[in-house]
Automatic annotation (TrEMBL):
Organism for this UniProt entry: Lentzea albidocapillata subsp. violacea
InterPro entries (UniProt xref): DUF3152, MetalloPept_cat_dom_sf
Designated name of the protein: DUF3152 domain-containing protein
Biased composition (Low complexity): 51-71
SUPFAM superfamilies: Metalloproteases ('zincins'), catalytic domain
Positions of the DUF3152 domain: 87-289
Amino acid sequence: MTVGRIVMYVFAAMLAGVTIGLLRSLPPDAPAQHGAQPRIPVVGTSISVRPAPSSPTSSPAEPSSSTAATSPLALAGQDVVRPGPELPPGVPVRQRGEGWWRTVPGTTAQVGTGRVRTYSVEVEQGAVVPQAQLPFAAAVDQALADPRGWTASGDVAFRRVDVAQPDVRIRLTATETARAICGFDLPYDTSCYVNGVVYVSAPRWFRGAQSFRGDLEGYRKYLVNHEIGHFLGHGHEACPADGAPAPVMMQQTFSVSNDRLAEITAAAPQGPAVARDGKTCVANPWPNPGVAR
């Protein structure tokens, strides 16, 4: 055997040994096929959720009958919890205006057959966006023109003016301005009538009162008719009978319950004392609710 062949045999043996060694070093589950993609480790992610406490008499999926009976939804529409004077949640309202009012242009024909009382509709500048001014004026007009309003008695008529001096001004007013004029001894936003001017509280106009249970349009009509009632010389009244429509001159912004109203106004009387007689009325925006439209 020549030296060249010996060298070739030795080289071949060495190459075979290296290949066998490499094959033995592979893990048992290594991909055998050519071009296999390497394994990508999977990272597990978990979110810890604390379960709600469950009572021994109910399952998480189905509340017990006693729980359902006392839930806020079960009480909706009932007088178990009497609505209070707190401002309902709603749209944000600007706290401050500029302290002066601009008359909203527009006039109406006379409504009613009695003594004509003229009124203007005005908005405190900076209190609301300009787009809210015409809808405010339209709502005031509708409240005073409705057959269930003050004109039903035949003693009074209304007509809106925008240039002539009015008998009464109806002003949409920013929160802080209304509080300064109407008072804030009772810490609840209110509207008021003072010296020929009705000051309509913006937060009440845009968010209403709990006693009206979400009926914002009805509350707005009540607000206008109540304050115009003061302009016409009417004082506050109480609920006359359990379940009856509340008098428009009742302070329905605070409550339609005599007991609750007496409790709220005890520290700052709002006229004749309200008797704690257990009577609770139904919210009503009209001076004459029985009149057909």
